[in-house]
Amino acid sequence: MEEKKVIIVGGGLAGLTAAIHLAQKRQKVTLFEKDDFPRHKVCGEYLSFEIKPYFDRLKIPLEDLQPKKITKLLYSSASGSSLEVNLPLGAYGVSRYALDHLLYKKAAEEGVELIQEKVTEINFLEKHFKVTTSKNEYTADYVLGSFGKRSVLDKNLNRDFFQKTAPWVAVKNHYRLKDFPDDLVGLHNFKGGYCGLSNTESGNINMCYLATYESFKDHRDPEKFNEKVLRKNPFLDNFLAEATPVFEQPLTIAQICFDKKEAVKDHVLMLGDAAGLIHPLCGNGMAIAIHSAKIASEELLKHFENQTSREEMEFAYKKRWQKIFSRRFNTANWLQQILLRDRLAEISQTVISIVPFLLPKIIKQTHGSPIL
Ligand SMILES: Cc1cc2nc3c(=O)[nH]c(=O)nc-3n(C[C@H](O)[C@H](O)[C@H](O)COP(=O)(O)OP(=O)(O)OC[C@H]3O[C@@H](n4cnc5c(N)ncnc54)[C@H](O)[C@@H]3O)c2cc1C
User: Fold this and answer.
1) 50 near 369, Cβ under 8 Å?
2) Which amino acid residue places its CA nearest to atom 48 of ligand 1?
3) pLDDT per residue over 66-88, tens digit each?
4) Which of 43, 113, 294 is the pocket-test mutation for ligand 1 (most atoms within 8 Å of CB)?
C-alpha cells in the first residue's frame, strides 16, 4: 500500500485549485482524476469575477486564455418578455475545456502528483484513510473530496442525498454564430427549465440548459426538446434558427439534485459540488468550488502548523463553509422556485421592469465578493 500525506479525489475546479494552493505551500499532494484532460464538461461557462484576486495570488494565468468579459445579463421569460441589466460584478466567458486544462497544467508545474485512476472507496481507519482506486490501494493522512455533484463515493460514504430522487437533466452544446455579443450572458426561461447563452474564449457560444426530468422525458432526445420546448421562447427560437452546432452530439448529464450535503463526512473535507450544488441560474457554482478549495486549504495548513487538532480543523471548515455560502444557496433556492413557475416568473419580471434596480440587488445576493 503506497503512503500519501494528502489525497485529493477529483480533478475539477475545486480539487485542482486546492492542489495548487497546498503545493505552493510546500505540501506533498496527490490528486486522483478518473478522466483525462482536456475535455468538455456540462456547464454554463460563466465564471464570476470574484475568483480573480485569488487566481492572481495563485499565479493562475487565466488572462492567457483570453476569456470574454461578461458585464450584462439579458433575462427572458418563457413567453419572451425580456429585460437587460448590468451585472454588479461581472464574469469571464471561458470554456471548461480550457479552464480545467489550465489548472491541470498549473498543478503539474507546482509538483502535484497527478494520477489518472478512479477512486472506488474512501475509508477512515482511526487515524488515517485507506483510499482504494481502480488499480491500487493507498493510505493517506488527509483526504479532500472534490468528486463533483454525484459519485459512487457518495453511495459508499452513505450520504443522505444519494438516497433521494435527482430530478434534473442538463444539456450543453457549443454553437457558431456571427455577431453574438462578447459581454452578454442570456438567461432564458422555457417550460420546465432555463437556458444560459454566453460567449467563450474560442468564439464559440455555449448553450447550456437545465430541465426537469419530468418535462424532458416525453422528448428524451435533446434535438426534439429544442424544437418542441426551447423554441417556444422567441430568443431561443432565433438563436437556434441561426446558430450552427459545433459538437456532433450535445453533452448531457442526468440525476442532478440540489439537496443539502455535508461539508465534512467521515473526516473527508468536501469541496465544490461534493459539499453542495447551487442552482446554476446563479452562475456561481464554479466560484463556490474555487472558494471552498481556498478555505479547506487554509484550514489544513493551520492544522499542519499545529494550530488546530483534526477535530478543530474539520469544525472550522464546516463553520466557514456555512458562513460564506449558506445565504447564496438559500437565495438560489427561492429564485429557482419563482423562475420555474411561469406565472410567478412573469409577475416578478413585471415588478422588476417597474423597479429595475431590484435585479442587480437579487443577483448580488447569489454571488460573493471578490475572494481575497
Ligand atoms: C447545467 C449546469 C450549468 C452550470 N453553469 C454554471 C455556470 O455558468 N457558472 C458557474 O459558476 N457554475 C455553473 N455550474 C456549476 C459548476 O459546473 C460546478 O459548481 C463546478 O463544476 C463544481 O466544480 P467541482 O470541482 O466541484 O466539480 P467538477 O468540476 O464536476 O469536478 C469533479 C471531478 O471529479 C472527478 N471524479 C468524480 N468521481 C471520481 C472518482 N471516483 N475518482 C476520481 N475522480 C472522480 C470527475 O471526473 C471530475 O473531473 C453549472 C452546473 C450545471 C449542472
Assistant:
1) yes
2) 12
3) 999 999 999 998 888 898 999 98
4) 43
